[in-house]
Specification:
Urease, subunit C, domain 1; TIM Barrel; 2 domains; seven-stranded parallel β-sheet; 19 strands; 30% helix; binds N-(aminocarbonyl)-beta-alanine; binds zinc ion
């Protein structure tokens, strides 16, 4: 007798699909096959797809940003939103600001997450102050405690590190068994392009993409990879948005460099042309790197299809649009330089990529599973506990109605935002039931579960 059986669905993994039942006991998948015995509870998944719960490897939750603002979502609202979109594990950031102890920062994030988390979570570290104490004493301990990844910024004055600091971080990360995530944009090139726009009086939010040119992302991506190779570190390029960044990644991988990379739904389905809106509404699309053009979109889809990009993460960075604690912190007429960067997407990540990718034939279903669940779990030390459907794995599943068509409306989403950059978009294919560690947390339009049900998941170091 199982606790729960998901019966008769089409189970999809990165290896393919099969018609199978999934048997769950004690929060773990204990069997997967035809005609399994009964469960205390059963869900009929006939005619539905049964996918591994998604792993969103890049999101900002209850985090103080480079601009000093807190994100709108805490671990509860973010987790509910993730679960309703088929994602059952998130890896947000524990962000060190200059002068802080990295260990103390991580403990504060643990404290906030423990009582509020709705889905399972890990932490990437953000290192902005790589002192010898941080790199030699704190980092190895934090990696051993289950945080084997850290992010560095090549832009944003409050967070950015120099090339020399980046080399020291790469070196320490290699020794500690961590992968280094890099936000790759050339800070000086961005400052120069920004100054040129401001000098011409071009301050509207729609000017933001021109202030962060694709060349600045391409150059920084190339430099980050070169420095990582010099130090012998594993490097992961986050939120790749353009051809100029894809090229050095592909070249590095072709020569065998240890480079991984992601993109995000916003770069796959939106372009800078979407910012052609009146007034402050265009600020909803401000994120960095910025939205690009159709040619970049095509290149990103191609890179997902041919394996040059490893995963799709949301980069959920929620700042409410019409809120003095959000994008309007400096008022409605603020220049683009003063508007917080970031857009929401935890809940829509998987439906957007399924709808725009699998249904259009740009990527296969098995690739979708790999890009949204299995690869993030594998790269970030969660596999096979997370990211697949197999005996022994956590019972994290989403049951999808692939024909369900919905028009995206912020009112239907579960995050703490007042606005979605994807509002009005027609999306076909949605999770109708989500199971997290064996518990049904989203079913028939209802959320079930308490704040604090989500658990910290210690991830495996790259030395293990
Ligand atoms: O605009 C973005 N992506 N904001 C989030 C912070 C970051 O750089 O990831
Ligand atoms: Zn970033
Ligand atoms: Zn981010």
């Amino acid at each position: 007798m199982f606790d729960l059986v998901v019966r008769g669905g089409t189970v999809a993994t990165e290896a393919g699909t099969e018609c199978a039942d999934v048997g769950i006991s004690g929060g773990v998948i204990t069997a997967c096959g035809r005609r399994l015995g009964p469960g205390t509870r059963e869900i009929d998944a006939t005619g539905r797809l049964v996918l591994p719960g998604g792993v969103d490897a890049h999101c900002h939750v209850d985090q103080k940003s480079s601009s000093g603002l807190m994100t709108a979502d805490d671990f509860f609202t973010a987790g509910v939103s993730a679960a309703c979109g088929g994602t059952t594990t998130i890896i947000p950031f524990a962000a060190q600001h200059r002068g802080q102890s990295l260990r103390a920062v991580v403990e504060a994030y643990h404290e906030r997450a423990r009582s509020r988390a709705f889905v399972d979570y890990g932490f990437h570290l953000i290192v902005s102050d790589p002192t010898p104490a941080v790199l030699e004493e704190e980092l190895p301990g934090l990696v051993a405690d289950g945080c084997p990844s850290l992010k560095v910024y090549m832009t944003y004055d409050a967070l950015k590190v120099t090339d020399r600091q980046m080399l020291a971080i790469f070196d320490a990360a290699r020794r500690a068994g961590a992968i280094v995530l890099v936000h790759a944009e050339n800070s000086d090139a961005v400052a120069w392009a920004t100054g040129r726009l401001l000098a011409q009086g071009l301050t509207e939010p729609r000017c933001h993409p021109a202030s962060r040119p694709a060349a600045a992302e391409g150059e920084a991506t190339n430099r980050a990879i070169a420095l990582a190779e010099l130090a012998g570190a594993d490097v992961f390029i986050v939120h790749v948005s353009c051809r100029e960044a894809l090229a050095p990644i592909a070249a590095a991988r072709a020569r065998g460099a240890r480079v991984w990379a992601e993109t995000c739904p916003q770069y796959l389905v939106l372009t800078a042309a979407d910012m052609d809106l009146p007034g402050f509404d265009m600020a909803r699309f401000i994120c960095s790197p910025p939205l690009r053009n159709r040619d970049d979109q095509d290149a990103l889809w191609g890179a997902l299809a041919d394996g040059q990009l490893d995963l799709v993460a949301s980069d959920h960075a929620p700042y409410r649009l019409r809120d003095p604690l959000g994008k309007m912190v400096h008022g409605e007429d603020a220049p683009f330089t003063k508007i917080p960067n970031g857009i929401s997407g935890l809940e829509l990540r998987m439906p957007l990529v399924y709808s725009a990718g699998v249904r259009t034939g740009r990527i296969a279903l098995a690739q979708f599973v790999a890009l949204t669940a299995t690869n993030p779990a594998r790269i970030h030390g969660l596999y096979p506990r997370k990211g697949t459907i197999a005996p022994g794995s956590d019972a994290d599943l989403a049951i999808w109605d692939t024909g369900l068509e919905r028009v995206v409306a912020q009112a239907d989403l579960h995050d703490a935002m007042d606005d979605s950059p994807f509002e009005g978009r027609v999306v076909t294919g949605w999770p109708v039931t989500t199971i997290a560690r064996g518990e049904i947390v989203w079913h028939a339009g209802k959320v079930a579960g308490e704040p604090g049900r989500g658990r910290f998941v210690a991830r495996t170091s790259r030395l293990a």
